[in-house]
Amino acid sequence: METATLISLGIYFLAMIGIGLYSYNATDNDVSGYMLGGRKLGPGVTALSAGASDMSGWMLMGLPGAMYVSGLSSTWIAVGLLIGALLNYLIVAPRLRVYTEIANDAITIPDYFEKRFEDKTRMLRIVSSLVIVIFFTLYTSSGVVGGGKLFESSFNLNYELGLYITAGVVVIYTLIGGFMAVSITDFVQGCLMFIALVLVPIVAIDHLGGISEVNQIVTNINPDLMNWVAGSSVLGIISALSWGLGYFGQPHIIVRFMAIRSVKDIKMARRIGMSWMFVTIVGAITTGFVGIAYVAKTKMDIADPETIFIVFSQFLFHPLISGFLLAAILAAIMSTISSQLLVTSSSLTEDFYKTFVNRSATQTELVVVGRLSVLLVALVAIALAYDRDSSVLQLVSNAWAGFGAAFGPLIIMSLYWPRMTFAGALSGIIVGSGTVLLWIYLPISINGQTLSATMYEIVPGVIFSTLAIIVVSLMGRMPSESVQQMFTKMLTTLKANT
């Protein structure tokens, strides 16, 4: 069984590396080509690469695991994510695509901030780059943890070996093919995830005798598992829904909006992306829910709830199909790791090396530095992932909140409020990220619960970041005339292309 499954995984790995080689030959050998693919992405690739890089291993491991433990009350996270993703396409995507090109072709988020606010001090670039490097290294680590758990639970391989296999394949195709390789592999991986999250819950439900039988088994175990609000306070539901707030500040997602071929393609990308997301999220939560009934009926013992999808793939399918389903998990993990590695690499290359080490660096030199940065970040993420008890969902939630609070209000207000100033932007990043970190680590409890357990840290982070931006901006001088003109040009261009 393991041999056939490994053959399927081997084919998948070779296909991903092959895409990397293809992208290397098809991409211009300059920084824009390596980091943004020359802004040539079509709507289909944009939508699925954004979705696949967004969902990561938590889609097939973290979310089903949460559903398995808590029942339908975990669905609020999915609702919040769907709303947030839709608003991201509507509110952020069109303006960011236009504005980043008008702002002297900004190719990273820190680059956009610096040019949007005419920051001569480079402080915006430095602070935002530090936030990206810190939180993305943590985020990347969560994906590597998922890969280690997959190989350990599926093949009884050493957990640490699983970390190196997972990260190694991603590093190869990301390092070789850059943004184009990451986007194309994300598209393929998104298709794999879609098929797997339709196939697994349908087969599992059929195996158990239908959805009514599943509902009956779950009800007999604990009726509260069938209740959307059981065990949840108002603050708990708000916290779950607030995951949607994070979308506006995720660099690995919004960079897809910067790279799409044209503003006119965003509408089609939105339709494809939201359809894909709805089906896959429903599949993920259904997998976790059906898993409750399956484990109870078979009297199986599961040590880690986040492996329920792996259990289904091993016991309900032929080994070759199992390999395909495990490849779907790896696809979810790898798509996010590769995107995060590339964004972090872009920041290290453009925002640190080119800005502070060698301002006259050639395009070839910058691409080499970018590739070395991919390798460096991957090694650090592997080191952090050595903690085998790390929860994929917990690691993702912390990093998601950090980005959402640090960049979300800043991105939206920079696209809609011309009165916003450099000082306001810098305050928003510092206050947002600082609030999240304090909320997580301050030794304060409410009714015996930590601040983070009482309210998801993204909520206070976004609130205080927004207030900081508004108050500090209004206290300062009006932005320069050239900033006002750039904002007006963005609106004019947007209107002409929509």
Automatic annotation (TrEMBL):
The keyword Transport applies. It is found in: Cell inner membrane; Cell membrane. The keyword Magnesium does not apply. It catalyses: L-proline(in) + Na(+)(in) = L-proline(out) + Na(+)(out). Keywords: Amino-acid transport, Cell inner membrane, Cell membrane, Ion transport, Membrane, Sodium, Sodium transport, Symport, Transmembrane, Transmembrane helix, Transport. The chain crosses the membrane at residues 6-24, 75-92, 123-141, 161-180, 187-205, 225-248, 276-296, 316-343, 364-386, 398-417, 424-446, 458-476. Catalyzes the sodium-dependent uptake of extracellular L-proline. Belongs to the sodium:solute symporter (SSF) (TC 2.A.21) family. This is Sodium/proline symporter. It comes from Alishewanella maricola.
